[in-house]
């Protein structure tokens, strides 16, 4: 049997150049993306600066899987980079502790309150924030209510709040909270959630004081990280000579643009290639509206055509053409690019990255959580185009593809399309009430009216917009004919 990856079993040549001796960063949401992105930047920064105090305490929000994978490995794992040519592999050592929030919520709060920690980063996905559709915290969410009632916190907002209050009590110093999720103005968005929590909390006063000195910089993150498969783990073991249960797979490209607004010390991420800037918004808007929007479009259209991966979908010339049109016709007129970013070249590079045949990024993975992804990726474009009296034909097609995916539930080959979405119960109920349960013959106007009426996704403005409604009926019709 092959030995398990650890500091002692790993051949010296592959050992990380720096293994931090102290924890300085807490990361909430220890998924594959963090391990292939911020953790790599943090390691690279440690190598460039020689600083050893920026080890990461990674917090899993749900299951103990990552802790079980990393604990026997001294926190080490590898990133298997798949581009053109042979894959490459690098062992990362920046994660120095793994906590599983449901098992030990008190330890999470204690770590956030640790005076040696000055930065908390987050990748908890769109739904992890528990925001209301109109912005702000969803105070009707039972988990938020339970945290507000004073249990050891289980929600991200509750964890941060408890940690900040503890910092206030112990004089631990101001904190920077850095959201790395694909959301519009993610930093200010999270600050607002915290403020709403404080307003509803009995410890609100202390929390408000801490929030005043805390910083919530915005950031844009980019790297395609598909879910790891058993075949990936076997390949990594062959390359490493030891078994790594925590390997993550990624494309070669990686990018991080961070608003330069920190309350205290931070890792020297700019030495590792991150862009520190005064204004992240143009970067973030370009990325969400170009990359993530076409990703979602290709996921839904591709899945409907029976393609299993994004690379297969973008190799379909018709779909690649539609993705390109979405960017050039609908999205680009809505963007003011950051200095130095050529949108046309960016769009081409996005499609090239999607075409990476080695990545095997499943359409079903990108398709999940559509109810919280569409507003961020597509509906801003739709609103801007409608306001400019232009018909958002391609963005409408992407939304229609989501509708057919949700309502139809089968691909062109008759295979069932999984609906993995925080609002799936609501969506299914709405459809059933309109007589369009999943799997039945689709009637365009009924599907559109049912789904467009979900105001937590579309708001009242788009629900009541007749131009958009007609466009969707048209596009749903063309997809189901
Ligand atoms: C994808 C993103 O899963 C998805 O919805 O669109 O995770 C995408 O791969 C990343 O944002 C790329 O940076």
List keywords for this structure.
alpha/beta; 2 domains; five-stranded parallel sheet; single chain; Rossmann fold; 481 residues; three-stranded mixed sheet; 11% strand; 11 strands; binds D-mannonic acid; globular; N-(1-d-carboxylethyl)-l-norvaline Dehydrogenase, domain 2
What order do the helices and strands come in, and which of them pair?
Elements: E1 23-28, H1 32-36, H2 38-49, E2 55-60, H3 65-70, E3 77-81, E4 88-92, E5 95-100, H4 105-112, E6 119-122, H5 142-148, H6 156-170, E7 176-179, H7 186-200, H8 204-213, E8 219-222, H9 230-240, E9 248-250, E10 255-259, E11 275-277, H10 281-304, H11 310-315, H12 317-331, H13 343-354, H14 363-367, H15 370-387, H16 393-408, H17 424-433, H18 444-452, H19 455-463, H20 466-480
Parallel strand pairs: 1-2, 1-6, 2-5, 3-9, 6-7, 10-11
Antiparallel strand pairs: 3-4, 8-10
Helix pairs in contact: 4-6, 6-7, 6-8, 7-8, 10-12, 10-13, 10-15, 10-16, 12-13, 15-16, 15-19, 16-20, 17-18, 18-20
D-mannonic acid is lined by residues 182, 222-224, 292, 295, 365-366, 373.
